[in-house]
Amino acid sequence: MARFSDQIHTLKYLFIAVAAIQLVTAASGTIVALYFAQTGASQEIAALAPAAYSLGFLIGCFYIAGWITSIGHIRAFSAAAAICAAAALLFSVTENEPTLLIVRLMTGVATAGLFAIGDAWISETVDEKSRGRLLAVFAIILGLMSVLSQVLVIVTPDDLNQSFVLMSLLYCLAIVVIAATPSAPPEGKERANVRFKALFQDAPTAALGALTVGIVSTVFMNVVPYRAAVIGIDAADVAIGIAAIYVGRILFLYPLGFVSDRMDRRRVIVVTATVATGALAAFATFATGDSARHSAIVGTPLYIAMLAGLILLGGSMLTLYSLLLAHAMDRTVPVYVASSAVTMLFVFTIGGIAGPLMTSVLSAVFGDAVMGWMLVLAMAVFAGFTAFRIKTVAPAARAEQTHFKATETTSLKSVPTQKR
């Protein structure tokens, strides 16, 4: 059995390549939103972009990723990254909205393939004893890349075309690194099936939560930056706010997971969802006005309080998926653990499509300001439903609880599989 350090060394090239992909993927949500604001697109169009991306991700994750690995992990990874690089460059040369929506769709397809290949490579290379620790290291790396991703916006605030060029260069870096890796990729394995009805029957809190988090997080991370730019907030300030949200996830994810392993996990989920609801309500209430109001608070204690609120929002909104996945595993028969995890990602991605579409329609009918309150209502309904389930349904038996594990919403493989 290989030592843990040896396994890290074997996968270091893959880690570098996927870290570059995560850096670009996390940055693209902000950059694309700012680009649509810069070109004068409506909020309805800006909301369709993440919907197109999520639809592409759904197609790539569940219908294409398995096919492309048949040509080999390295060639499939390189081809998918090349598609993403070309897509980034297209944003720098055209403002045609239908074309750009198609480009985001294709980016979603290719990105799903990239993360599916990375997950499979890691899961099939390391032994069972080391897998949990290695995936934890991987999750920390991806989290740090999410925070650092906003640097791409900060260093090019006045010319987003430069940001797209930098994104393309990072995709090319990932291709070079993965193509030069001296380690042999593993053989592909069959993927678990989606069990949509069974998930809603066995763990309705997890199922509704995954849908809600998909709706709320996709809209907030991909449409809110557009709204901020439209009212005149600088791109660098928008990026700092998004980075604060990602910092919140890093700070709160493992402490919340640790606590949830030692009690009815739904209690941690309902508190986290309630905090997220409050943070979203504060945002919907105070995130109005124009750039002059924002500029007036920069450097003041109120600005620090705003960043703290965004960290709290990230620590609640972006940690919920991992908590919900662990809860789903608590309620799942061991033989169906992998299928339930795949279904959770499927439901989350459906939310990522539905949320922006709802935003687009509601913005057209009621105006742009309705977006914030739509997110508040969605999270409040979920928190209320979870509280109701706690009162009416007994918690999972202690012996049936899984051990919490940080899980990315790009992963088909990183799932908690060990029962107590």
Automatic annotation (TrEMBL):
<feature type="transmembrane region" description="Helical">
    <location>
        <begin position="370"/>
        <end position="388"/>
    </location>
</feature>
<feature type="transmembrane region" description="Helical">
    <location>
        <begin position="48"/>
        <end position="69"/>
    </location>
</feature>
<feature type="transmembrane region" description="Helical">
    <location>
        <begin position="12"/>
        <end position="36"/>
    </location>
</feature>
<feature type="domain" description="Major facilitator superfamily (MFS) profile">
    <location>
        <begin position="1"/>
        <end position="398"/>
    </location>
</feature>
<feature type="transmembrane region" description="Helical">
    <location>
        <begin position="335"/>
        <end position="358"/>
    </location>
</feature>
<feature type="transmembrane region" description="Helical">
    <location>
        <begin position="76"/>
        <end position="94"/>
    </location>
</feature>
<feature type="transmembrane region" description="Helical">
    <location>
        <begin position="238"/>
        <end position="256"/>
    </location>
</feature>
<feature type="transmembrane region" description="Helical">
    <location>
        <begin position="205"/>
        <end position="226"/>
    </location>
</feature>
<feature type="transmembrane region" description="Helical">
    <location>
        <begin position="268"/>
        <end position="289"/>
    </location>
</feature>
<dbReference type="InterPro" id="IPR011701">
    <property type="entry name" value="MFS"/>
</dbReference>
<feature type="transmembrane region" description="Helical">
    <location>
        <begin position="301"/>
        <end position="323"/>
    </location>
</feature>
<dbReference type="GO" id="GO:0005886">
    <property type="term" value="C:plasma membrane"/>
</dbReference>
<feature type="transmembrane region" description="Helical">
    <location>
        <begin position="134"/>
        <end position="157"/>
    </location>
</feature>
<feature type="transmembrane region" description="Helical">
    <location>
        <begin position="163"/>
        <end position="184"/>
    </location>
</feature>
<keyword id="KW-0472">Membrane</keyword>
<keyword id="KW-1133">Transmembrane helix</keyword>
<dbReference type="InterPro" id="IPR036259">
    <property type="entry name" value="MFS_trans_sf"/>
</dbReference>
<dbReference type="GO" id="GO:0022857">
    <property type="term" value="F:transmembrane transporter activity"/>
</dbReference>
<dbReference type="InterPro" id="IPR020846">
    <property type="entry name" value="MFS_dom"/>
</dbReference>
<feature type="transmembrane region" description="Helical">
    <location>
        <begin position="100"/>
        <end position="122"/>
    </location>
</feature>
<dbReference type="Pfam" id="PF07690">
    <property type="entry name" value="MFS_1"/>
</dbReference>
<keyword id="KW-0812">Transmembrane</keyword>
<protein>
    <submittedName>
        <fullName>Putative MFS-type transporter YcaD</fullName>
    </submittedName>
</protein>
